[in-house]
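In response to reviewer comment 3 from the previous cycle, which asked for concrete evidence that the modeling workflow produces usable outputs, we include below a single protein chain processed end to end. The sequence was submitted unchanged, and the resulting structure tokens are shown without manual editing.
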Amino acid sequence: MKMYFRKCVLIILVMISNNLFAQKNLTMNKDTLADKAGWLWEISGNGLTQKSYLFGTCHGDGYNYKKEEIFKFNGLADVFQKVDVIGFETKRNLPLKDYKETAIIIYNWMKRPEPKYLMPRGTYYVNLYDNKSQFSEVHKYLSDNMSDIEYWKKKPSYWISRISFSQFIKSQHDIKIVDDVLYDEAIKKKVRIIALDDNKAQNTLVATFMNTQSVDKLPLKEQANKLYQIIHAINSITTNPLQELTKLYLDNDYYKVENYFNCPVFQNSKEANELLLRDRNQKWVPIIEKNISNHLCLFAFGLRHLMGEDSIIKMLRAKGYTIKPII
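The workflow returned the following structure tokens.
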């Protein structure tokens, strides 16, 4: 039970990191200095006496990754053998007590939502739908699956996030994400393992992100329509809807995955995007710089941190480093 609890909290952090609640359009990285790019990138220059590396992981597609699939990426096995420091986004396999604060944040979000999520008095779900069959499908899903007989007291925007949360938990149960595979191998290798985010940063991230969704700002009827679309899609799904992302990731194709994220179902608010990507990247760069100055390092984190105008790639280049893909 303790291991299951740890896994649930960790995959919630992974979900936020990979940002599957909502996907924001990315500005294409036109200056990658290569016609082809994948997930392994080399850091050199700016006075470094040895090269270090960045590696983009995929966590959130519901796929159970195998060691042989990950280490087939060109150069990764060699890099893994020679590095003496490996960095991940978060600390892993912590004592149960270290997950308590995060669990409380998530519990309060689920059971004691902020006032902005509460439905205005006198407003009812049945009146938000012109098509009564749509209301019936929403009503049945929320009544049967969300363990809340008074679901109608909360706005559709709240249930959109809750359903995304629930679906993600289901998809991640009893699987290994790329980060898990690399972490297990890092333990076997007995290298020094560091975390780019500390516990406080992760808890702040969880608390802020769960209350920073762009759908909150939509009129209630639009929220209700999006909620129906999500529920109807779930009811219609027969295969993993993210299998395309898995395939593109395993094909080691940076540009196609970047393009994949430019076709989002949802878009983040500006505040959520800054919190999830830009602000964290800015905090990570000094940690990366400190370690690569005297260690041969590999930093593994969600692939989206390598993409867009606020990417780790661009931030390190702005500092004078040469960053190029290994293909």
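The chain is about 50% helix and 10% strand. We consider this sufficient to address the reviewer's concern, and the full set will be provided in the supplementary archive.
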